[in-house]
Amino acid sequence: MAKHDLASRYIGTIGGPLWAILHPVATVVIYWAVFSIGFKAMGPSGMPFVLYFVSGLVPWLLFNNTIMTSVSAVTGKPHLVKKIVFPTEILLIVNLVSETFAHVAMLSILFGVIWYYGYEPTPFLFQTAYYYVALCFFVIGLSWLLSSLQVFHRDVGQGVAVLLNFWFWLTPIVWTNDMVPEKYRWTLQLNPLAYVVEGYRKSLLHQQPAWADVSGGACYWLAAAAMFVLGAFVFRRLKPEFADVL
């Protein structure tokens, strides 16, 4: 019986991280089969579609998964929240760190795909660290905001799931920027995730420096800073009431 319990715990320990990798890999295979094989789709300048898609999907998954787990970070751990000395803000950062491990694993898979298609690694690869930090800054602020609202309105999580579905299709992951009429392309700068997704592609595929897009970077950091400040303000304002509500 003890051996059975030990085996169950072992499987449960590795099962979570394993599914965190297998699920996005399955998603990649499905999109590759539908678009590359079925529709014969290609990325910009004849780039293999799977390269274009996966390089945009990897940062999106970090964003999507972190937000989904962070929404219920406070409500899911009332025993910690009710301890006055416990800094509940850390719960959201812990979620981000946890998702980062899956992010690194997906990046490793992406590097393998890039190598398979003959793309040579360049120093621009290290720019992904900048875009990762930029994304984390935005994610932490949004996570603080949503997790604090979830304490008082338990349907926030369901609304976030719907919002993320729309957000995915508003971000150039499956489609390209060229599909947007030129006079409307400025609207892409209103989507912070578009800056990060394109940043990963610039670093891994196009070998373009991050400082080449000054206006896009300025718009992103203004939005990220605003979200960080707003999230921190709302979380700290509502935090004293968490224990009473939970």
3D architecture notes:
With 246 residues, this protein is mainly α. It has one domain (42-245). Helix content is 72%, strand content 0%. The protein is built from 9 helices and no strands. Helix 1 (2-38) crosses helix 2 and helix 5 runs antiparallel to helix 7 (192-206). The two termini are 37 Å apart.
Which terms would index this structure?
246 residues, mainly alpha, 9 helices, 0% strand, disordered N terminus
Helical proportion? over 70%
Number of domains: 1
Principal-axes geometry comes out as globular
Number of separate helices: 9
Helix vs. strand class: mainly alpha
H-E order: HHHHHHHHH
Span of the ends, CA to CA: 37 Å
Mean of the pLDDT scores?
85
**Segments where pLDDT lies below 50 for 5+ residues?**
1-15
Strand content bin: under 5%
Tally of DSSP β-strands: 0
Radius of gyration: 20 Å
* Sheet having the most strands: none
Short description:
By secondary structure, the chain is an all-alpha fold. Helices cover 72% and strands 0% of the residues.
Please specify the SSE layout and strand pairing.
Blueprint: H1 2-38, H2 49-71, H3 78-81, H4 89-116, H5 127-152, H6 156-170, H7 192-206, H8 214-238, H9 242-245
Helix pairs in contact: 1-2, 1-4, 2-4, 2-5, 2-6, 2-7, 4-5, 5-7, 5-8
